[in-house]
């Protein structure tokens, strides 16, 4: 008896389908969590870069095209 025949005969197929669905949902959640963490890291780096550029611009005085 093959594995497929045994699964059909015992009625485990719905249970295997539910288990596969649960595993698929878990994999998708893991991927989305990774995307959220990556987005937060990129946002943090952008915030640091913006702060650094703002402080450099403030320290350098008025912008050249504003001088008259």
Give the gist of this structure.
With 68 residues, the chain is mainly alpha-helical.
Give the percentage of residues in beta strands. under 5%
The poorly predicted ranges are none
Quaternary arrangement of the chains shown?
A: single chain
What is the helical fraction, as a range of percent? over 70%
> Outline, from the CA principal axes?
rod-shaped
Element layout with pairings:
Elements: H1 3-10, H2 13-59
Keywords, separated by commas or semicolons:
mainly alpha, 2 helices, 68 residues, 0% strand
Your description of this structure?
The protein has 68 residues and is mostly helical. The protein is 81% helix and 0% strand. It has two helices and no strands. It is rod-shaped, with a radius of gyration of 28 Å. It starts with a helix and ends in a 9-residue tail after the last helix. The relative contact order is 0.05. The mean pLDDT is 85.
